[in-house]
Amino acid sequence: MAELKLAFIGFGNVAREFARILLSRRDNLAETYRLNCRTVGIATGHHGIVLSASRSASGIDLNAALSIVESGGTLTQLENVTEVKHCLEFINHCDADIIFETTPLSPLDGEPAATYIRHALQRGVHVVTANKGPIACAYQELKTLAQAHNVAFRFEGTVMDGLPVFNLYEYCLNGAQITGIVGVVNSTTNAILSGMESGLTFEQGLLEAQRLGIAEANADYDIDGWDAAVKMVALANVLLDARLHPREISPQGIRSLQQADVEKARQRQATIRLIGRATRSANGIQIRVAPEEVAAHSLFGTLQGTSNALTLLTDLMGEISLLEENPGITQTAYALLSDLLRIWQE
Ligand SMILES: NC(=O)c1ccc[n+]([C@@H]2O[C@H](COP(=O)([O-])OP(=O)(O)OC[C@H]3O[C@@H](n4cnc5c(N)ncnc54)[C@H](OP(=O)(O)O)[C@@H]3O)[C@@H](O)[C@H]2O)c1
To answer: Is the pLDDT reported for residue 54 higher than 80?
Structure first.
């Protein structure tokens, strides 16, 4: 049986759900993949930063870490751990094979995630992130760094959770080119808009998204279109080889939409959805994120709740659409598992 040493930077909704999957799949990973995962460190913002003590052969007890963080404690309460004060020191000493980075989104600079990822890659550690900020702000640099240090940098969970968008492009569309991207890629605004169609208020729709753990830590990033804009930039940077930065985008969110706007759209057999578009022209790649009226029976128009959909325009495969029905936190956490196994198998 082989072993992978895992470390977490960020132990919030996504990472904790991933931890629960690792615990529940322990036997399956051993039987199917001959793989044992040992947690060697966990770093958070306010719940402590700890490394597994070197004498602990079993690593950090994830069940205990989950209960401590979920009851508001600090990870220094764990047995057999040593505390470190800073994340960069954590990266230097954690001795992990893979670091899972899931700190909150900072749309205009991708920090501190980009710094953490850069540091880990330079130390020869594989990195998996669910944080779209670094892909939108520093993709080319981080990809080149990973190649130079012969390690993997994977980020399937950054857009549409575990649905294979980047993997589809990397592994299944050999020889085809993507020429444009259109999508509803933000779950929170979709939950709010479809909720308003069924009589909820804007605030009730937002509360539901927060209850499900799918809203950003700062929900203004969802409502004002920044989450969608950063996702569209990340998609364009990876799938269209764009060299864009979120600072070049001016998203229009859904904050000013009223119940009356939703009702007017309904009378025209339409719905309002926050649509992201990446298009190629002679001037390069342009990105637009704004609420649009779409036909009520169209793919985007029928999206309810947290559902997302993405259409890739290609030269040889026409339009390929991906639909994710009402994803929750498990789907994002699955992306981390899928990236882990991809690294393990390659
Ligand atoms: N939630 C989703 O459905 C979803 C879907 C796709 C992608 N994502 C992305 O995944 C990432 C994580 O989302 P989440 O919902 O898990 O967020 P979250 O619940 O807010 O958790 C964030 C974690 O990061 C820690 N943290 C904050 N600042 C830090 C810092 N400077 N250094 C080290 N750790 C720090 C927090 O620690 P404390 O709590 O102790 O402060 C917490 O453990 C985000 O980038 C988000 O955009 C989320």
So the answer is: no
